[in-house]
Write a structure and sequence with these properties.
Elements (H helix, E strand, L loop, with lengths): L2 H15 L1 H23 L5 H10 L5 E5 L5 H5 L4 E17 L2 E10 L10 E5 L6 E5 H7 L6 E4 L2 E10 L32 E6 H7 L6 E8 L5 H9 L8 E4 H8 L1 H31 L1 H13 L4 H30 L21 H27 L3 H5 L10 H7 L4 H12 L1 H31 L9 H35 L1 H9 L4 H34 L10 H27 L3 H6 L4
Parallel strand pairs: 3-8, 5-7
Antiparallel strand pairs: 1-9, 1-10, 2-3, 2-6, 2-9, 4-7, 5-8, 6-7
Helix pairs in contact: 1-11, 2-9, 2-11, 2-12, 2-17, 9-12, 9-16, 9-17, 11-12, 15-19, 16-17, 16-19, 16-20, 17-19, 17-20, 19-20
Length: 600
């Protein structure tokens, strides 16, 4: 029998005899790779919606922000310019709708359709005297529809309709690449009302609600070669001046239009590394839970002539096979789920591009899966392969060091806590991994709480205004939280079960010396609660730091102390509930049956 055939048969046999452990490894690595795939393949899905919006609204290739209308002539007559509309006056405005007070850029337009940048009306009609039109994302955030009444700079208008445009990014990213109006045009004290939106009205109406000295202008240009738009804008902007026109090319607008999905993608990419770390801890616990049996298997393989290389290869091949399978499952799930998260938002029209699952994405996901499997099992596999045959056949758990101080303290501990500490010390690697798993999970939960606390301050400038970017980010964070909590739950249950099985003989001896099944149950649960409590305490500051790093130095609001205390206290409570049943089952096995069983 060839060496590779032997290894393959041993791997297949081991997987067939341990389907539960194999399924848990698939779940852990598959979940992490699915989140990573989602974060990687959402890139560029808004390209088609922007192109559709640009075509439907006869969008410009370049938008020029002017200080006065006379600056338009030079740009209109510039080489390569094929058409234009405007210049249109713009000014800052304060909108009051329902119970909300928000800021906006008010743009004066003609009632007749424009040759360049005629916003595509998706509800109602276009501007007319006494009526305004709101950008669709802005209208949705305010809960405004056609026919509603709003106040613009103190004057009441009827909302004639809502529309989309390719000439500027949608709310709340209107000013992401430069505002077309000056904050000085807003009433004093109202410059901090959050992100501005876009509202169109007739030029006479704009003149009636704004100060002529604080009006600027927008000019829309089309080029004979749209591909040269970025070069034209860069040439004009290379020598910045407070009085010179500022040009924005359509690729910059398209990029800002994609921020809704890009922010969501960033959340998933950053979060996928948390999921990968949790998967690493989970796989390490799973492999460590079977270490005693694997070590005995190493002794048997060596006894029949297996070399250390063969032994290490057999141990690694099983987990690498599961890792590659899980990566394939994660890629499929991520690719199939991506369309649910790729909506371009209300600011664009058209169908988003299909998520692109490229070879580079697939290669990175496979590499992460293999790295997780190797990091969790490489060292134990090498250590096991170097173990002597006699020692491997008679492998026993690690015995804790007996120190006088520890013995003196332990004599005063309650029996359940003493049992729990001893079980945790016997399998120190498993205890550390369990604490790390809990810390990673709490890190993700606290990061979500920090995001919610920060968003609560930034999201609502006034009651009634919502932020679609924050809404989408929150959806991605909630998805990530579900993945992390699911992995943590499975990991906690399996760790408790493995600990109960591994502790059968110590538990039987404890019962023989007078411990009750109830004390053993509490002790087995305590062996999980102790590292969980430590992980919860460590995870709180890590979660805050993680969010601060992911937020790139932006505004950070520490969650209320009551939230953090609830997380710290709730973590061991949840672990107790998850481990109660495995611990109870492990404590109820008859003492005589355990003590008479052959040592494994």
């Amino acid at each position: 029998m060839g060496r590779m055939v032997l290894i393959g048969r041993l791997v297949v046999r081991d997987l067939r005899h341990r389907p539960v452990e194999a399924a848990l490894v698939l779940l852990a690595i598959g979940a992490a790779t699915a989140v990573l795939t989602l974060g990687l393949i959402l890139h560029g899905v808004t390209s088609n919606p922007y192109a559709a919006t640009k075509a439907a609204s006869t969008g410009p290739d370049v938008v020029a922000q002017l200080n006065w209308a006379g600056q338009a002539k030079t740009l209109v007559d510039a080489p390569g310019v094929s058409g234009h509309s405007g210049p249109y006056p713009v000014a800052g405005a304060v909108l009051r709708v329902h119970d909300a007070t928000v800021v906006a850029m008010a743009e004066g337009r003609d009632q007749a359709p424009a040759a360049v940048d005629q916003p595509d009306v998706t509800q109602g009609g276009w501007v007319r005297p006494g009526d305004v039109v709101l950008e669709r994302t802005f209208a949705g955030a305010l809960g405004v529809t056609a026919g509603d009444r709003i106040s613009v700079n103190g004057r009441l208008f009827t909302v004639a309709g809502v529309a989309v445009t390719a000439a500027s990014p949608p709310y709340p990213n209107l000013c992401y690449i430069g505002c077309g109006f000056s904050l000085a045009s807003l009433p004093r004290g109202l410059t901090n009302l959050g992100h501005p939106g876009l509202v169109w009205l007739t030029e006479p109406d704009l003149a009636g609600i704004s100060n002529p000295d604080q009006v600027s202008y927008l000019l829309n240009l089309t080029l004979h070669s749209p591909a040269k738009a970025q070069a034209l804008a860069d040439a004009y902007n290379s020598n910045p001046s407070t009085t010179a026109p500022y040009l924005i090319a359509w690729p910059d607008i398209a990029s800002a239009d994609g921020l809704l999905v890009a922010d969501e993608q960033t959340v998933l990419q950053v979060g996928s590394w948390l999921a990968a770390l949790l998967a690493l801890a989970s796989v390490a616990v799973l492999s460590g839970g079977r270490m005693a049996e694997q070590t005995r298997r190493v002794g048997l393989l060596k006894a029949v002539g297996g070399t250390p290389g063969t032994v290490a290869t057999v141990l690694l091949a099983e987990h690498l096979t599961l890792a590659l399978t899980a990566a394939g499952v994660g890629l499929a799930i991520g690719w199939l789920t991506a369309p649910l998260l790729s909506s371009p938002g209300a600011g664009l029209i058209g169908t988003p591009d299909a998520p692109s699952l490229t070879l580079s994405v697939a290669g990175l996901v496979l590499a992460v899966a293999v790295a997780v499997a190797l990091a969790a099992t490489l060292v134990p596999a090498i250590r096991a392969s170097r173990t002597s045959t006699v020692r491997a056949l008679g492998e026993v758990p690690r015995r804790p060091r007996r120190r006088r101080l520890l013995i003196a303290i332990s004599t005063r501990l309650p029996v359940p806590l003493l049992i729990g500490l001893r079980l945790a010390a016997r399998r120190l690697r498993r205890t550390v991994l369990s604490a790390a798993s809990t810390a990673i999970t709490v890190t993700g939960v606290v990061a979500v709480l920090a995001f919610q606390a920060t968003a609560a301050e930034k999201r609502f400038a006034t009651p009634g205004e919502s932020n679609p970017v924050i809404d989408r980010d929150m959806h991605a964070l909630m998805l990530l939280t579900v993945v992390l909590l699911s992995l943590a739950v499975v990991n906690a249950i399996f760790t408790a079960w493995v600990t109960a099985l591994d502790a059968q003989q110590p538990a039987a001896l404890a019962q023989a010396f007078g411990a009750t099944p109830g004390q053993l149950t509490v002790g087995l649960a305590a062996a999980q609660v102790l590292p969980a409590t430590l992980g919860g305490l460590v995870g709180v500051p890590l979660g805050i730091e993680f969010f601060a790093a992911a937020n790139h130095g932006g505004i950070l609001t520490i969650p209320p102390a009551s939230w953090l205390v609830a997380v710290v206290l709730g973590t061991p409570l949840v672990v107790v509930l998850l481990t109660a049943i495995p611990a109870r089952i492990g404590a109820r096995r008859p003492v005589a049956e355990v003590l008479q069983a052959e040592l494994a």
